[in-house]
Design brief:
Length: 282
């Protein structure tokens, strides 16, 4: 397999400043492109290594990749407190347009965790506007915005308990939701969550986002004999009832988005490239 060119860093002008990107050109003839949509908060930091390895693997397989730090994240302009779901949609549209001009090929979205849910939501909005992405790669997607928000608020409660402030944790996630509904930002693990972003998360659910385009969905499980998790099975079944047919894959490996140390899952990289190759040769 041809070695991929070195990644090229660049800044794209955008609303409120610039978006930091890494462009991975395809090795050999370009078969298409993917915009990488990263996770939220610490998961973004924990998955940087896998995102880089995945971008290189896709580039070696003939797919150009643009990694973009969304508004308020990473090395892009703004603070996370200023991050908004709609602004992230604008960033994905910007990134897709740039990548398609660069390669002359349709671009898909490759989302990881919350980035996968954002990719699904963006695909639905773009399709309604007549500009759907070429395809989706979903790595361990977050499937329910409300459930994910509750998990984030529980992390905040756990932090309060560790800090010895049990009084704040006693009221549970609903008290924090009430603060958000009242317009008060909530700090979670060093990230200030704005009420508008929280409200957007509360309104997005993969069950309502069945995409009418090719989808390869990857779930990382503890062992090769483990089935697709029940929540993923329910969503996939709902999509199939809506006339969509995602290809759902299980891959045995570590939950690299949760580990404190940098962890790799080579089997996920191999499975992703293999799934694209199957479609090319079908």
């Amino acid at each position: 397999m041809t070695a991929a060119p070195a990644a090229e860093p660049l800044f794209l002008p955008a609303g409120g400043g610039e978006r930091y990107c890494l462009y991975h050109a395809a090795a050999g003839p370009c078969r298409g492109g993917f915009v990488h949509v990263h996770p939220f908060g610490d998961e973004m930091n924990r998955t940087r290594r896998m995102a880089a390895l995945g971008a290189r693997a896709l580039a070696r397989a003939g797919y150009a990749v643009l990694q973009i730090d969304l508004a308020g994240c990473g090395d892009s302009s703004g603070d996370f407190a200023d991050a908004r779901w709609d602004a992230w949609h604008d960033d994905l549209a910007l990134a897709r347009h740039w990548l398609e001009r660069q390669t002359g090929q349709p671009a898909g979205l490759w989302g990881l965790r919350l980035g996968a849910l954002l990719a699904l939501d963006h695909a639905a909005r773009a399709a309604a506007a007549g500009s759907a992405p070429a395809r989706l790669l979903l790595w361990q997607p977050v499937l329910s915005g409300p459930t994910y928000l509750t998990q984030l608020l529980r992390l905040r409660m756990a932090g309060d308990l560790v800090d010895g402030d049990g009084s704040k944790a006693a009221d549970g996630p609903q008290a924090l939701r009430a603060l958000l509904r009242a317009g008060t930002p909530v700090e979670i693990g060093g990230y200030l969550l704005d009420p508008a972003l929280a409200a957007a998360l509360d309104g997005v659910d993969a069950a309502r986002l069945a995409p009418a385009l090719p989808v390869d969905w990857f779930e990382v499980v503890a062992g090769a004999d483990r089935p697709v998790p029940p929540a993923a099975q329910r969503i996939a079944a709902a999509w199939q009832e809506a006339g969509r047919a995602p290809r759902v894959h299980t891959v045995a490996g570590p939950a690299f988005w949760t580990t404190q140390e940098i962890t790799e899952c080579g089997a996920l990289l191999d499975a992703t490239v293999a799934a694209l190759a199957e479609e090319v040769h079908a």
